[in-house]
UniProtKB/TrEMBL annotation:
The protein's name in its UniProt record: 1,4-dihydroxy-2-naphthoate octaprenyltransferase
One protein family per Pfam: UbiA
Catalytic activity: an all-trans-polyprenyl diphosphate + 1,4-dihydroxy-2-naphthoate + H(+) = a 2-demethylmenaquinol + CO2 + diphosphate
The keyword S-adenosyl-L-methionine is annotated on this UniProt entry: no
């Protein structure tokens, strides 16, 4: 039986910035629209956190029973390492995704925009079928698109819409920026896993682009938020303060651009996530001024 610390590690806490950042950025855009609601923002955060924990456990379960995680470099895999029974990890995934669904339903009901149930259902289905089912889309190179949509566009714009009933250009810019950061985290992860993914038959976008193409994609993705900072700064100069987060990416850019492999890429995931969270916090502050 897995220990509490192993369950926590299996939830992959280093990915939590991917859930927090879109809500924080969305709150900033909502404040700019003078529509902020603290409890709706909190609900949106809990939905996002439940969703990412659910997808992490679901990935652990699905990859584990397929044998994909047997030789994986990186955080502990509960099923792949044998420290937890597959059924227990599946149950944890379903509980987390179920919680996201219930909290999301409350948020939709409070907003009165019932069509958002469709978006919520797509988010939950996307979390499961990333590596679950007979033809998981994450095995065919669509994982990056899903992360951009769910933890970028949906996460930020959903947070804005359930409070303001509309979105803004600033909100859209934040959604694209956070989505690019979040996709960069997955790209660095899949870059690290290219050798083992090829061996196990997992055809991620990284295995399709190859080592060099994946590195170039990562560098392009982490550039996008800062280009948007400059564009937003033309209209709201305080947003330029987000540029001070760029140094947080220096080690990651050097590692990815310099050809680091395997475990040497693990810090890049952490640092990219931290840069994303810092960018989101500062953008929220700037949009609130």
């Amino acid at each position: 039986m897995a220990s509490l610390s192993e369950w926590i590690e299996g939830a992959r806490p280093r990915t939590l910035p991917n859930a927090v950042a879109p809500v924080v950025a969305g709150v900033g855009a909502t404040i700019a629209l003078d529509a902020f609601s603290w409890w709706r923002s909190l609900l949106a955060l809990l939905v996002s956190l439940s969703l990412i924990v659910g997808v992490n456990y679901a990935n652990d379960y699905s990859d584990g029973i397929r044998g994909t995680d047997e030789n994986r470099v990186g955080p502990l895999r509960l099923v792949g390492s044998g420290v937890a029974a597959p059924k227990a990890v599946l149950a944890a995934a379903l509980v987390a995704l179920g919680l996201a669904g219930v909290l999301g339903l409350v948020l939709v009901a409070a907003s009165g925009h019932w069509w958002l149930l469709v978006m919520g259902a797509l988010c939950i289905l996307g979390a499961w079928f990333y590596t679950g089912g007979t033809r998981p889309y994450g095995y065919y190179g669509f994982g990056e698109i899903a992360v951009f949509v769910f933890f970028g566009l949906a996460g930020v714009l959903g947070t804005v819409y359930v409070q303001a009933g509309r979105v803004s250009w600033a909100g859209l810019a934040c959604a694209v920026a956070v989505g690019s950061f979040s996709t960069a985290v997955l790209t660095a992860n899949n870059l690290r896993d290219i050798p083992t993914d090829i061996e196990s038959g997992k055809r991620t976008l990284a295995t399709r682009l190859g080592d060099g193409g994946t590195r170039r994609l990562y560098l392009a993705l982490v550039t996008v938020p800062y280009v948007l900072s400059v564009v937003l700064g033309i209209f709201q100069p305080w947003v330029l303060i987000t540029l001070v987060t760029a140094p947080l990416l220096l080690k990651s850019v050097r590692a990815v651009g310099g050809g680091a492999q395997g475990r040497a890429l693990i810090p890049a995931l952490r640092d990219t996530g931290l840069a994303m969270l810092a960018w989101a916090v500062l953008s929220a502050v700037a949009l609130s001024v």
